[in-house]
Design a protein that fits this description.
Structural class of chain C: mainly alpha
Strand order of the largest sheet of chain C: 1-2
Number of domains of chain C: 1
Distance between the termini of chain C: 44 Å
Structural class of chain B: alpha/beta
Strand content of chain B: 15-25%
CATH topology of one domain in chain B: Rossmann fold
Helix content of chain B: 40-55%
CATH class of one domain in chain B: Alpha Beta
Largest interface: A-C, 44 and 42 residues
Largest sheet of chain C: 2 strands, antiparallel
Number of strands of chain B: 10
CATH architecture of one domain in chain B: 3-Layer(aba) Sandwich
Number of helices of chain B: 11
Chains: A mainly alpha, B alpha/beta, C mainly alpha
CATH superfamily of one domain in chain B: P-loop containing nucleotide triphosphate hydrolases
Oligomer: heterotrimer
Number of strands of chain C: 2
Strand content of chain C: under 5%
Largest sheet of chain B: 6 strands, mixed
């Protein structure tokens, strides 16, 4: 199904069914006792976090901007939330969203300045920006703990919800699992809505031809900055949420290599497909874990998987689903298209 | 008829070369004005200067009494000036349908949040847009190709698509750059119907074209060569003008 | 006085190392229109291979550096032929491919050497006195070697047939092919030369600082910065941008700390890009 806005109507039945099954699975997953409990839950939380960041990166890509700085914005969100909650005594539940908004503000300013650059020059300036942010985190030692890890800021603590009882984020990873799952679901929903609305169509127009778009009144700068801001909002949110879960922040996690990794999750999964980021993150995070027994040799397998996809599946893993959908639709005999 | 567009002393230098040189002309409301001249005369440059794609070295462009010289292209579009491109620029990865739907951007007037929450009002607006889009496609003869990607269309149909997009923009002034270039006869007929429809909707048209059928539609013609206006008048008056013949056919030409 | 001369030498050393690495990076970009993000890892592996070749075969440092350069040149040909040649037009896939190469190379470095700190043996160990100033001979010789190589490469590009073919291909690939130039051979050569230079830089740097599987990451950013500031497509301009960045990196950390110096250097690169995307010497963007 071509990724186009509201002109294509409805989604086919098999797709809804698949989503429903996936949702149920994700909800009961922590209780299935897979793979040794807490560590498996942790990996899931990691996956949810990166799904948020990678999907929001995809939104930025939709407007024709190949940003190589997603990790830097994660870092801005993470550190802002951690420092604000620690020094100002505000609850992480609030600082998480404040940090996301702050990240978005930075993104808007930076995105505006960088909007005069196109294609490869835009990508290169985001590379430098990412490097600069990481260096800045290390430089502001008194605030961020410098190159050593930042610890001791509040976690999500204890939630008392009437009717459900007490949820303690410190005693088990499961509450964080559901928190990040909910955030990921909401993010995907929001991004999906945006893409299918006229805003998404305008982004695609600007990406394809800024000249033609301007001739029908679409301002390239406005929509590029919008996409960049929205994308970085979610990156900051994910960074903040994960930061309060893990209790440790280190500048190295938000540097150039992490950004390149996130871009790879997107490209490997397939940037033209909405669920491409999900696939990319799952494969590239799950594969090394699966081969954890190989210890320091595990990255070889990841590298190998990457090479296979690069050369044999150029459009990304999600493109493999195309023939699968056609097959499913024919056999099921249903579907709106 | 009053002038909807006033161009005064418009000049554009690229390095030492004047692509447009001290051009002064006006466009009267409701007319179809032909802009003629041999290839390389600067006609597309004039369009680029009007719409803000290029900044003039000198001169002024006044639209409906407002000075729009050098304003950004998307702002000029908002003022009500639409244009098509000589090389059939369109959105290559959109279908024919999506290309025209996208062109309703200014018309649809949908906010970011309306679209985001998929409100009833938003849905209704988009349904109306879809109806109008289908009507436009039928008029231009592209309704059967509506799901073909822009980049996969043959050249003549791509040009028809730019006509369809021009109808969608519903501007007060429409600049058509070689609207039927490369089309065969049936397609040209569709294009003519579209142009007549645009004009009857109240739009003023400035057209760059070499095709005789289309030149006959024009109320007035301005001829330029090397960026300079060399003749102005009705088509009949202009076609036998000495300067015009010299521009097109070189010296020592007679009718 | 001591601090001044020391800083001067440090600046020169950093500049020449950066230029060596950036030169290779820029060559690949000019000839193949490709940003080889794995270039930093090539530099890193060059350092490691120099170490191994030196310790296993017992070669003197000169020999180790030379042999390592040869090995990495071959590796460069392999990278070009098996990877970049096929992927050249697609920025996305070259980025992914570069990351795959980085991951594989870094893992190999980690696996073979691990956490033990190693050094490439000095080409010229010991200290020397010039006037009132004590200098490490190592750093001075690193400078000298680097400058020598840069002059050599410059001559190579301008005076030899192969060098001129590289210039032709960088200006217009299709036209060059139509003129009978074997663009694939030229690309392979550019890659080989590029990797050899990076390897030498790695070997030299590896004797000044210790080996580390991640030393390539920072170097990649430096190379990118040099190329941007000089202007994509300008080879001569690298000397200027190399000196600028090298001296920024040698002096600013003294006042602002290591991280602060990096922030300043990055801000400078961003400023250039935003104000003058074509760099100091490049073509109009």
């Amino acid at each position: 199904m071509k990724e186009g806005p509201k002109t294509s109507n409805g989604t086919s039945l098999p797709k809804y069914a698949l989503l429903f099954v996936a949702a149920v699975l994700l909800i009961i997953l922590p209780f299935l006792g897979i793979g040794g409990g807490p560590y498996f839950i942790h990996i899931c939380i990691l996956i949810f976090t990166f799904v948020i960041v990678t999907s929001s990166l995809r939104t930025i890509y939709l407007s024709g901007q190949a940003s190589v700085a997603p990790a830097a914005f994660m870092g801005i969100g993470a550190y802002t939330s951690a420092i604000t909650s620690a020094r100002l005594g505000v609850s992480p539940w609030a600082t998480m969203f404040i940090a996301a908004l702050g990240t978005m503000a930075v993104a808007a300013a930076v995105g505006y300045i960088f909007s005069r650059l196109r294609a490869i020059y835009f990508s290169v300036v985001t590379v430098f920006f990412g490097v600069g942010v990481e260096a800045l985190i290390r430089a502001l030692e008194s605030l961020t703990g410098g190159r050593t890890a930042l610890v001791g800021y509040p976690g999500f603590g204890i939630l008392r919800i009437s009717g459900i009882g007490v949820i303690d984020f410190a005693s088990s990873k499961i509450p964080a699992y559901y928190l990040l799952l909910i955030l990921a679901a909401l993010t995907l929903l929001a991004l999906y809505r945006l893409e299918r609305s006229r805003t998404g169509m305008n982004w695609a127009a600007v990406a394809q031809s800024p000249l033609v778009a301007s001739s029908i009144g679409i301002s390239e700068v406005k929509f590029r900055v919008l996409a960049f801001s929205v994308g970085c909002f979610f990156a900051g949110l994910a960074g903040a949420a994960y930061g309060h879960y893990s209790g440790v922040l280190a500048p190295g996690s938000y540097g150039l290599m992490s950004s390149i990794a996130i871009v790879t999750y997107l490209l490997l999964g397939g940037q033209k497909y909405f669920f491409g980021p999900v696939l990319g993150v799952v494969i590239l995070v799950a594969v090394p874990e699966f081969f954890r027994s190989a210890k320091e040799y595990a990255p070889y397998i990841t590298g190998g998987v990457m090479l296979v996809v690069i050369f044999l599946i150029p459009e990304g893993l999600a493109s493999l689903t195309k023939p699968a959908w056609l097959w499913l639709r024919r056999t099921a005999g249903k579907g709106a298209q | 008829m009053s002038a909807i567009l006033d161009i005064n002393g418009l000049t554009k230098f690229f390095g030492g070369l004047a692509a447009v040189n001290d051009l002064t002309m006006d466009v009267r409301e409701g007319e179809i004005l032909g802009l003629m001249g041999p290839n390389g005369a600067g006609k597309t440059t004039v369009f680029n200067l009007i719409t803000g794609v290029l900044h003039p070295t000198e001169g002024k462009v006044v639209f409906q009494g407002k000075d729009i010289t050098g304003h950004k292209p998307h702002t000029v579009a908002k003022y009500g000036i639409g244009r098509t491109f000589q090389f059939a620029y369109l959105f290559p990865d959109f279908t024919v349908l999506q290309n025209v739907v996208a062109s309703f951007y200014l018309d649809a007037k949908c906010g970011f949040w309306e679209g985001f929450f998929n409100t009833g009002g938003y849905r209704r607006k988009e349904e109306r847009v879809l109806e109008e889009v289908m009507e436009i496609l039928r008029m231009v003869g592209l309704e059967h190709e509506k799901d073909i990607l822009g980049k996969n269309l043959p050249h003549g149909l791509q040009k028809l698509l730019t006509m369809a997009r021009a109808l969608a923009i519903r501007p007060k002034l429409l600049l058509l750059d070689e609207p039927v270039g490369g089309m065969h006869r049936d397609e040209v007929e569709h294009a003519i119907r579209a142009i007549e429809r645009i004009r009857s909707g109240g739009t003023t048209i400035v057209m760059v074209e070499h095709n005789m059928r289309l030149m006959q539609l024009c109320d007035r013609v301005v001829v330029i060569d090397f960026g300079v206006k060399i003749a102005e008048g009705s088509y009949k008056e202009v076609k036998d003008h000495e300067e015009v013949l010299r521009a097109y056919f070189g010296k020592e030409s007679h009718t | 006085m001591q601090l001044f001369v020391q800083t001067l030498i440090n600046g020169l050393v950093l500049s020449s190392i950066y230029i060596l690495v950036a030169l290779g990076f820029a060559l690949i970009f000019s000839v193949m229109q490709v940003l080889n993000f794995a270039h930093g890892s090539v530099y890193m592996v060059g350092a490691y291979v120099t170490y191994f070749v030196g310790s296993i075969f017992g070669l003197p440092p000169w020999g180790a550096i030379a042999l390592s350069a040869g090995v990495m040149a071959l590796f460069g040909v392999f990278l070009e032929g098996c990877g970049f040649r096929i992927l050249a037009k697609d920025f996305n896939r070259t980025l992914m491919f570069s990351l795959a190469v980085i991951v594989l190379l870094q893992t190999t470095a980690d696996v073979t050497v691990g956490g033990v700190l190693r050094h490439v043996p000095s080409v010229l160990p010991g200290l020397t006195r010039v006037g009132t100033v004590t200098l490490s001979k190592e750093r001075v010789i690193a400078c000298v070697i680097a400058i020598f190589l840069l002059i050599l490469v410059n001559l190579l590009i301008r005076k030899t047939g192969l060098g001129r073919e590289m210039i032709a291909v960088s200006l217009d690939r299709t036209a060059s092919a139509l003129q009978g130039i074997n663009v694939h051979r030229v690309s392979a050569f550019a890659f080989a030369l590029s990797c050899a230079l990076a390897s030498v830089a790695g070997g030299l740097m590896g004797s000044i600082t210790r080996l580390d599987a991640y030393m390539g990451d920072a170097m990649l950013v430096k190379a990118l910065a040099l190329v941007i500031i000089a202007g994509m497509g300008s080879i001569g301009g690298l000397f200027v941008s190399g000196l600028i960045v090298g001296f920024i990196d040698a002096t600013l950390p003294i006042y602002f700390g290591a991280a602060g110096g990096e922030v300043a250097a990055t801000a400078f690169a961003i400023l250039i890009l935003v104000i003058r995307p074509q760099g100091l010497f490049g073509q109009e963007v």
